[in-house]
Every structure is written in structure tokens, then in C-alpha cells.
Design brief:
A: Potassium Channel Kv1.1, Chain A, 3-stranded mixed sheet, 3 strands, B: alpha/beta, 13-stranded mixed sheet, 16 strands, 24% helix, F-box domain-containing protein (chain B), FB224 (chain B), F-box_dom (chain B), F-box-like_dom_sf (chain B)
Amino acid sequence: MSVENAPVVDVDEAAIPVEKKMYYRFESNDKKEFRVSELAIQQSETLNRLVEAMGYTSEDVENKPAIAIENIDGKTLKLVFQWCEHHKGEAIPVDDGSVPKIVEIPEFDAKLMDIDNGLLFKLIWAADYLNIVQLLNVSCKKVANMAQGKTPAQLRRVYLLPSDEEDEAAKRAAQEAQDPRAREVEEEFEERKRQGGNSFF
Amino acid sequence: MQQSIQLQKKKSALTLEDLPKEMVVEILKKLTPANRAVTRNVSKQFRVLLESTKPSLKYVGFKIETDSITLTIDGESIKFAKTKTGTFISFGQYQIERAENFEILASRKLLEVANHAKIDDFYIEFGKDSTGFDSTRLFAYDCPILFDVKNLTIKSPRNCALCFPLTWMNSETLEKIEIKIPNRVAFFENFDIFQYDQFTNAKSINLKRMGAFYSFELPKFYKSEQFEIKIAEIYTEDILALHNAILLSPRFKKCILHMRHVYSLDEVIDTLRLRPRQDGNYFFQIPDSGDILEYTVVPDYIKIERKTNLQ
């Protein structure tokens, strides 16, 4: 995708100090390109370190290829950069180790995360990898809030998790697939138990 | 130069199961206490991960009435109503009450929510009509863990229930114990809290009750950093015993004894070999130490304080 056709992320020009007004170009694994302000990049420890290490000038940013972020798709990356632009300049929270962690989800973030679970988990994954502390906080809080008023069975459906029994059955099935003799031995053992035998041997 | 960030290859549709454990833990850390309890029962894996997060709770409260128990954890309350009684299930030679019993449900819920938790304030209030049997049953069950509680407050109309909650607390973390007994209690034969490390090791103990301690119980407090209690009447030999216990105490700082009156102030002062100070108080010079025990002795009140400087 050409630079001209790159998706435009809304930028509040007035909020960006003059000396920081440089836009880096990033490319997702599906070749979508994004321009992100230097101040917004500071929300991501990983990207911030990377661009510092590269030491690009304004000309380099325009003339060199976009920085590729492999295995994060354009849909997820767009959400990440929208979040970073909206929260640019904000202090990065420090983890005080408290549990439960109190996290408020701002209105903007709530709207941004009004997405399906698959994309939400991708967002969490991306926030963790790019080390965007507050995005990780709010996205994890969004998932945690799904537990509100649910029973364990409902939660398993929401999170698409197997119950312990299903988990055991899946493990057994996988084991049997590897060793078909295991099931025969188990059946033989059960049969002997039914017949009153004390020992398998 | 093409810069790239290598990420681990992932499936296109992620589920919670696909996330690395540390990210799932990040999610679990943000659950409210009530949701934490529900999530524990989702799967074994979740239970293990939850137990690795060690929550810090500001407040845990039990309000125990004869027909209900209300458990409050950091602003969220759950009420357990009494179910039918008299239903038992056999277990070997024993018969145990049905699992739906409200005391069991309440204690189990607390375990689910506060397992491995650090708790700032643990408040227990026994209702005024709760009988000894009703009110003690909740805590009579063996608790598989000890709660890391900082401040424990127990309010009870009777003394018989007080020992049981103590057995749930970690004596290493308890700093302050406050016990309030608003009703007059004639005898204290069941008030055997001194046998528990949780009680004797606490830094600060505050006992308020209409009735009073016997003064011979005083030396049992000597391990505490400070304590304030009400005693019925005080005898000189009991003050002497307390005085000697304090001298051996590894961390005593201050105590206040409230009483109706001291029989003989002069006898106390003579027996303890207290010396007068200009401000009207008395002091005892601790041998081989620069410290003193300062005594403020008035007819209904004795304060003893360990001080470093003789002024």
C-alpha cells in the first residue's frame, strides 16, 4: 500500500509540541500502513525504544521503508494506534502490585473496545507485546468485566473455555490417538473390576 | 533498511485459552472479589492462576445473625439465609450437616474470594440474638488456610464465640485486635483466648466490655506491644505480676488498665518500689537499662509506659 493511501489516524495537532512533530510509518502483517506521531509512540515502550535506537530524521521517515510489525494485523494495529494517539502525552501508570487492580475504562476506550472477543484478545496480545501498559490494563479490565453476574458455566461459554471434565476428555482423546492400546487396557481393567477381580495382574 | 518486530505466530481467531498465562493473570488481577469467587470454579487452571495473584483486600466483614450471615468484601455484600436444619448426611460413623448449610456456604465463599489474600480489616459482628451455638458454628470448621489479616475487630454479645475467629488468622500478620463486648458477662471460663498465639502475639490489643477481666489474667498480655483493657478490681499482687511480666517483655510499650478502683494506691506504690516524679506520676528504673516504666496512677485508671529517657 502506498503512503498516500495509508489509513489516517486522527491527530490533535494542537496537543503535539513542535519539537515532537514527527510521524513514523509502521506496516502491519497485511501490508496496511499507519502514520503515528512520536508522542503517541511514547505510550508503547517497545516501539519507543525501537525508534530511539533507529535515530531516524524526518527525511529518513519519509524515504526509508515503513517499520514492519509482523504478525499484528492491520485491524488490530489500527485500534492500537488510535488508542495511542488519543492518550498521547498521558503519564504511563506504574504497577503498584495491588490486586484487585482498580481500573476505570474511559468512554473513548469503551467505544474503541466495542469489538468481538477475538479482536479484543488480539488487542490484549498486541498491547502486551508492544508494552502499552494502560491499554493492557483497560483491555484486560474489559475482559474481567465480562464475568459480572455470570455463573461458572456461563463464563466458560463467554471465554470459550472447556470444563475440567471436557479438558480431561480432550487430553485422554489426544493420548489415545497417540496410543490406541491405552483404551484397550483401560477397558480390560474396567471389565476385570466388574468381574470382581482384585488385581489387574 | 527494513525494520521488523517478530511476534510469535498466532491463529487468526484468538480465544482466552490462546493467551499466554501471564496475560490471563493480568485479566484475573482485575476481577472484583465476587467475580473472583465465580471465576475460581471455571476450571482448575483458572483456580491455580487465581491463587498466584494474592489479592489485597481492604475490608472483610461477617455479620452473623441467627437466621442469616452477611459477608461483605470491599463493598460487595452477599447474604446467606439459613436453610432447613436437621438434614444430615452420613460420613462413616459421623453425621455431618448438609452442605447447603448457610454457615458452610458463607465460610466457603470467603475462602473462594479471599484465598491467599492480604486483608487490612477483618470485622466480625455476632448479632445480639445469636446464641453461642449459632454464632460459633461458622468458625468452628477447620479453616484450611490462615488469613493474613492486619486488624481484627470482633463485636459479640457473649464471650464464648471469640476464640473461634482467632484460629482463622495468621498470628504473624495480626497487628491489632479489638474486641467489643457490649453486654455484661458474668463469667469468663470460656474466654480462653490467651492460649492462642494470634492473641498473645498481636502488637496492639484493645478490649472493651461491660464486664471485666480478673486481674490475675493481666500478665498474659505481656507479649503485646500495647493493650488497653477493663478489669473488675485490681489486687496489688496482680499488678506486681504484670510489672514483672512487662520487665521480661520483648516489646512492651504501653498499657492502660481501667477499673472501678484500686484498693490501696499506697500499697501498689510501695510494693513496686515506685519513685515519685515532680509531675505527680511515678516511675520504676529498669535495672541494667536506661529505660524506665512510667506509672500514672489514679483511683480508676493505671497507665504504664516504657520510656527511654528519665526526665
